[in-house]
Every structure is written in C-alpha cells, then in structure tokens.
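Students often ask why inverse folding is considered easier than folding. One informal answer: many sequences map to the same fold, so there is more than one right answer. In these notes we will look at a single instance of the problem. The structure comes first.
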C-alpha cells in the first residue's frame, strides 16, 4: 500500500502532469528507444510519429495521479490497456525499464521542480500501478495459454484465402500453420498481426478485429488499405499488396473487451462507420446464428457504394432473422450520414447499442444516443489506436 504522504505528493503533481504530460512522455519515448531500440519491435511507429502514443500515455499517467487514492477507479482502463499489452506480447521484465525512463523524463522536463521526494513518490506509485498491470496481464496470459488450442505471444498462421470485400477492404482467412484449430473467441474481439516487412529493421504489429462469428479452424480479419502516403498504412499496404494466399504471418491469441453479450434477447443496434464494420460483422452473424428472433438493427455508413463492404453478407445474415432492419448510408450520396433523426427512427432505446468507426463518427453517434435517452451502460464502443479521450459530452 502507498503511504498517505506518497499519495498526497502524487496528487499534488497532477496539475503539473496536465501541463507538461506530453513533453514528459515525448522525452520518455525518445530516451527509451535510444537505450532499448529492441522495443521498437513492439511499439507502433506511426502512432509515435503522430504523437498519439505520447498523448495516450500522458492521459494514463495523469489519470493515475488523480485517482491515486482509489486506483480501482482506473481498473476498467487498466483492463482495456492490459488486453492491448497481452496482444502485443508485453512481458513483466519490460515494466522496470519503462519505470526507469519515465522517472528520468519527469526529472529532465521538470528540472529542479522534480525534487527527490516527488521522484521517490512517483517511483512508489509506478511500482504499484505496474504490479497491477503485471497481475492482470498474467491472468490473461494464463487464460489464453490454457484454453483449448490456446497459446501465448505469437504463432505462425497461413493465409488460406484472400477475398476483396470493397475497393479498400480485403478479408484474410487465417489458419494455424501447424494444422491445429483456433481457440473460441467472443464476437467483437481482435487479434494482433506481426510482420517483418522487407527493407524494415523492426517488426510491426497491428490489431485487427475478427470479422466473422467464431469458427473452429480459422480466423478472419478484414483490413482497410490506407493511402500510400499515410504512415498508419505501412502494414495494411503490405498485407494488401504483398501477402498472398499461402503466405505465413504471425498472430496473437484473441483479446479485447468490446464484446457482444450473446446471452441477451433484448433489442440490439449495430452502428458502424467505414472499417468499423469489422467487429460488427462478427456480432451480427452471431445474433443471426444464435438468437435469430432478437430485435436487431444494423446501420452502416460508408463514403460511397464502392467502399461499402459486406453488403451481401449483411443481407444473408438478415435473411435468417425474424425481426431485423438494415440500412447502408453513403455520406457522399442523397442518403447522407446517420443523424439523430435516423437513430430515433431505428434504435430501440430500451436495448443495447454497439458503435465502432472513426472517432468523430463515434463521438456523434454516442452523443445522439445519449440525447435519445440511452444510458452509459447501454452504449458499447471501441476505437482503434491508443486510448485517446473520447469527447462525447
């Protein structure tokens, strides 16, 4: 347990972290990678270049400072980040390295203002928080390892099939290279894919939602090809252009907390934008197969018809259901975007809504659903990339 003095010091530094957090985390990452370049095999270089990872870490450190008296308040965030860590293969021995460089960065940015007492308090606090992550992740690794067909870290998979779903989304059907089956996963979960792209020094890891209901012998991911000049697009372009049927890539066990509650038969709405449709396909197919009488709405927004993936699959699943409404909106066409009026017409606010897509899309959808009277616990959402704050007030 942390002493009262330590907690008081950490809380008192929260405003300083709010002011200097991104500067501290930028120095932290620069120094960390200079000393431990092997960690570049784990971190997303594009998020680094764009400052997203630095901002996400600054938010996390600030949240820890504010809630140091009641760290259970940040447990949901810890669990969400721990899922990411497990899918990336983060190990307990990496935490002390991170702690050392975080403290050095605080000292470097704050200078004399970072007294020995402040640094000591943060060292203690970091130790407690790191132990929480290590404990949560250890149980996740254990569960992943001990489930049927489970494993830890990365395992070779073969690309069994490659299917174009739209002008910019292609599905990859992945089977274990050793001929085994895959573990059961929950609709909405994701896997990590690790590749070493020719000409690149470090491996790159990206997370992709599993885009079909659980099958015994395969995973399916559906990857949006980003623009050639987009730093986020390095892996997606490689997968689209160079990874063909028969190729081998490395895959982590399924992870993630954006989950369909498949035990319910109350109304459910799936609302997606762009490639955010991928986890919805797994959920929608599961509802069609297991609770086909469940009142269901499937709303999707794409820029135009050429970019709208899975239209045939949505129709096929809907045909197996007795109480379903589906509609695709084209933001560049006469239907326009999904508005509050549309949600009011389609969504039963007594049920649950699942939202996934670009951050501005999700902010708008969540805001409109709340305005209709849906409560926080009825609205489930997932966004891609580091855990940035959603501005949905």
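Output (designed amino acids):
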């Amino acid at each position: 347990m942390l002493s009262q003095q330590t907690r008081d010091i950490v809380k008192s530094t929260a405003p300083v972290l709010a002011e200097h957090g991104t500067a501290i985390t930028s120095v932290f990452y620069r120094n960390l990678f200079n000393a431990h370049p092997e960690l570049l095999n784990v971190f997303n270089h594009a998020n680094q270049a764009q400052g997203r990872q630095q901002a996400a870490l600054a938010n996390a450190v600030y949240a820890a400072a504010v809630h140091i008296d009641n760290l259970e308040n940040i447990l949901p965030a810890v669990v969400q980040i721990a899922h990411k860590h497990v899918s990336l293969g983060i190990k307990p021995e990496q935490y002390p390295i991170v702690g050392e460089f975080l403290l050095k960065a605080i000292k470097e940015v704050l200078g004399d203002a970072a007294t020995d007492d402040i640094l000591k308090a943060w060292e203690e606090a970091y130790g407690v928080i790191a132990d929480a992550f290590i404990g949560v992740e250890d149980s996740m690794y254990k569960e992943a390892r001990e489930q049927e067909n489970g494993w830890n870290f990365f395992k070779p998979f073969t690309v069994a099939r490659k299917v174009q779903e739209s002008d910019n989304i292609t599905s990859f059907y992945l089977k274990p290279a050793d001929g085994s089956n895959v573990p059961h996963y929950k609709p909405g979960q994701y896997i990590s894919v690790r590749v070493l792209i020719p000409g690149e020094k470090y491996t790159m890891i990206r997370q992709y939602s599993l885009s079909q209901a659980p099958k015994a012998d395969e995973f399916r991911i559906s990857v949006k090809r980003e623009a050639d000049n987009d730093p986020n697009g390095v892996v997606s372009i490689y997968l689209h252009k160079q990874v063909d049927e028969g190729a081998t890539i490395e895959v982590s066990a399924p992870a993630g907390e954006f989950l369909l509650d498949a035990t319910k038969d109350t109304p459910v709405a799936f609302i997606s934008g762009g490639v955010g449709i991928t986890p919805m396909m797994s959920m929608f197919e599961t509802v069609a197969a297991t609770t086909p009488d469940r009142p269901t709405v499937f709303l999707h927004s794409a820029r135009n018809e050429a970019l709208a993936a899975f239209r045939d699959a949505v129709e096929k699943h809907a045909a197996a259901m007795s109480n379903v409404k589906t509609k695709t909106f084209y933001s560049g066409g006469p239907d326009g975007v999904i508005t509050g009026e549309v949600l009011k017409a389609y969504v039963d606010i007594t049920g649950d809504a699942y939202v996934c897509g670009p951050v501005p899309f999700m902010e708008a959808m969540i805001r409109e659903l709340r305005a209709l009277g849906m409560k926080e616990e009825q609205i489930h959402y997932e966004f891609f990339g580091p855990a940035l704050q959603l501005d949905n007030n």
